[in-house]
Design brief:
Blueprint lengths: L2 H11 L3 E2 H8 L3 H13 L3 E3 L6 E4 L1 H7 L6 E6 L9 H4 L6 E2 L2 E2 H11 L5 E5 L8 H6 L2 E4 L8 H7 L9 E5 L2 E3 L12 E18 L5 E20 L1 H15 L9 H7 L7 E4 L5 E3 L3 H7 L2 H4 L4 H10 L7 E5 L6 E8 L2 E8 L3 H4 L2 H11 L8 E4 L6 E4 L5 E2 L5 H15 L11 H14 L8 H17 L5 E3 L8 E3 L5 E3 L6 E3 L3 H9 L4 H12 L5 H27 L7 H20 L5
Parallel strand pairs: 4-7, 4-9, 7-8, 11-13
Antiparallel strand pairs: 1-3, 2-3, 5-6, 9-12, 10-14, 11-12, 15-16, 16-17, 17-19, 18-19, 20-22, 21-24, 22-23
Helix pairs in contact: 1-3, 1-4, 2-3, 8-9, 8-10, 16-20, 17-21, 18-21, 19-21, 21-22
């Protein structure tokens, strides 16, 4: 840190300051400040105060010298999801959450503007449209990080690097809350803000020398200064640091790196100082529980639909909903865990646009119908209107494993129990209707990209006609009975969850759907059929299962194409499902000629 520059900055901001004022502000001894004052006066950067004895003021030469340290702007990182703040961040990016009635990112923008920093860039990704209003309100620039969902902040800085090269820039996190304004119009060297943590901490602990230069970082420690909050990149620092960051970005295995990982790997090459901040100045809220303790409004009313629903269903205030934790989002929904009175539950929030694809009233009917079987998740609440669902969470349970045949035996017993229950609902799962439905959606949203689609479509119609001619039985079927939807409980019992697509259908469709979800090869599918039937399947059974493999692959490939048109990508899943359609049509045609067996 350039101490001459700091003397000039302080006198710029606080004219007519004494040596004692400077020593207190800069946390230096009076002797050190006296030496710096003499040096500044010799350089004609400062002069004795004309109106108040014992004080100093900045000269024109000092103003000119200080200009090299002028802050050019700020980059605010706001691309991430904020998984530890679910369910709030399902609807709102973390930086847009309010603390004491003011959004965290807006508080930082306001503080920057008060300090004279005008050029502000916000790196966005998740729910990027939510930040658009800031362009009009504060004249900020939005910069999109296309890798926000699969990489960490190293990638964010990489995509924003052109905004940093050759400039003096603050690097801020949108979800920090700063009590006092710690920004300045001038900064005299690169720094990382730090807070003192008493007791044990898992934060990144800083080591630094007498001049405040950071010399090392370790993960975790005790009674230590830690990396915490804003950062400042001088143009000189960026010139050295960004080329190394670019190299790390191109290196395989760094996808989940923070940008700070680059700093840690090369501390011997970079000069960056610690900027120690007082207690209760910088806040990085780790979860909703911390935010509740800080802003009591969140104890009673979060303005979040899911939390308000849970409070209503359980007849408790929101403050009694604890230990919220994000579950891995499924292909259609978002879910999170929570606890009330020491018991764990799951709340499912329907994914965007699922109301068009899934009839929630029919799903609710299925859950009511199957309750006597005791094979599903234990339902607490379900809405046929909104699709919100609350169920008990089974501690210690695990998903079944598709290639663990002992697991599959237990799962197939549950399917038999369903298929042989005699239970009925008033709706069917008509795979022909669903194929035509998704085809229509795809054609309305950019078309279908497969070059041979019309030919494959004709083949699927052949299979549908063949199945119709067989007058297959219809029973209550799950439709999505894949390995991830079977839970193996601690006592070895099995529960089948996620009944969104369930309806009256040919029961053998459940075997086919299970196979294609788990990317089964033909020999795996054969094994699954043997487990289900308790014997080698006959030709008719194999024909039906293979036909539904082809039709299921065709259906879900259309589903994935439609979802991609809405911005949701499922990688290789689309192609794999389409390959099932083509490959198993050929198997049916070659073995059964589509005209009897």
């Amino acid at each position: 840190m350039n101490r001459i520059g700091l003397i000039c900055r302080y006198l710029k901001e606080n004219p007519h300051s004494s040596q004692r004022d400077l020593a207190q502000k800069m946390e230096l001894s009076l002797g050190t400040v006296n030496t710096l004052i003499k040096e500044c006066m010799n350089l004609h950067y400062i002069a004795p105060g004309k109106s108040i004895a014992g004080t100093y003021e900045l000269t024109c030469e000092g103003e000119t010298f200080l200009n090299q340290f002028k802050v050019d702007g700020a980059l605010i990182l706001a691309a991430g999801f904020g998984s530890r703040f679910v369910p709030l961040t399902f609807e709102t990016p973390k930086g847009l959450l309010e603390v004491f009635g003011e959004r965290m990112i807006e508080r930082q923008i306001r503080q920057l503007r008060e300090a004279g920093v005008e050029n502000i860039t916000i790196a966005v990704g998740y729910l990027k449209e939510k930040f658009e209003y800031l362009i009009d309100k504060y004249n900020v620039t939005l910069l999109y990080n296309p890798e926000y969902s699969c990489k960490n902040t190293l990638a964010t800085i990489y995509h924003a690097r052109k905004a940093l090269y050759g400039k003096n820039m603050y690097i801020l996190s949108s979800d920090n809350w700063l009590r006092e304004n710690m920004f300045h119009k001038y900064e005299c060297g690169a720094w990382y803000a730090s807070t003192y943590m008493e007791g044990k901490t898992s934060e990144w602990v800083l080591s630094y020398n007498k001049k405040g230069r950071i010399t090392d970082v370790t993960v975790g420690g005790e009674n230590a200064w830690v990396m915490y909050g804003p950062v400042y990149f001088s143009r000189e620092f960026s010139a050295e640091f960004l080329p190394e960051l670019e190299k790390e970005y191109e290196t395989p295995g760094t996808e989940q790196f923070y940008w700070e990982n680059v700093l840690i790997h090369h501390f011997d090459r970079f000069e960056i100082d610690i900027n120690r901040q007082p207690a209760n100045q910088i806040y990085e809220f780790e979860n909703l529980e911390e935010l509740r303790r800080f802003d009591s409004r969140y104890q009673t009313r979060s303005n979040n639909e899911a939390l308000e629903l849970i409070a209503k269903v359980f007849r408790v205030p929101e403050s009694e909903i604890h230990d919220l934790r994000c579950l891995k989002s499924g292909m259609t929904n978002k879910s999170f865990l929570f606890q009330i009175d020491g018991k764990s539950y799951i709340c499912r929030i329907p994914g965007p646009g699922t109301g068009l694809l899934i009839n929630r009233r029919e799903e609710a009917e299925v859950y009511r119908t199957i309750q006597p079987l005791g094979i599903s998740d234990r339902l607490i609440y379900i809405s046929g209107d909104t699709g919100y669902k609350i169920s008990r969470y089974y501690d210690g349970a695990r998903n079944s494993e598709a290639f663990n045949w002992n697991d599959m035996r237990a799962c197939m017993k549950v399917l038999h129990q369903l298929h042989e229950s005699g239970l009925t609902v008033d709706h069917s799962f008509d795979i022909r209707e669903r194929i035509l439905f998704y085809e229509h959606l795809c054609l309305q949203h950019g078309g279908i990209p497969f070059e041979d689609y019309q030919n494959v479509r004709a083949q699927m119609i052949e299979l549908l006609d063949q199945l119709d001619s067989m007058n297959r039985p219809k029973v209550l079927s799950h439709i999505d009975a894949n390995a991830d939807n079977f839970l193996i409980l601690k006592d070895g019992s099995v529960r089948l969850i996620d009944w969104e697509y369930a309806g009256m259908c040919d029961p053998l469709i459940d075997l086919s759907m299970a196979g294609i979800y788990s990317y089964y090869k033909e020999e795996d599918l054969e094994k699954l059929m043997e487990i289900y039937f308790g014997r080698i399947p006959d030709n008719t059974e194999r024909l039906v299962v293979y036909s539904y493999v082809a039709l299921g692959g065709f259906l879900w490939s259309l589903w994935a194409v439609y979802k991609a048109s809405l911005g949701e990508e499922f990688g290789e899943y689309t192609i794999i499902q389409y390959r099932y359609a083509k490959a198993y049509y050929r198997k049916v045609k070659e073995r059964y000629c589509l005209q009897g067996i």
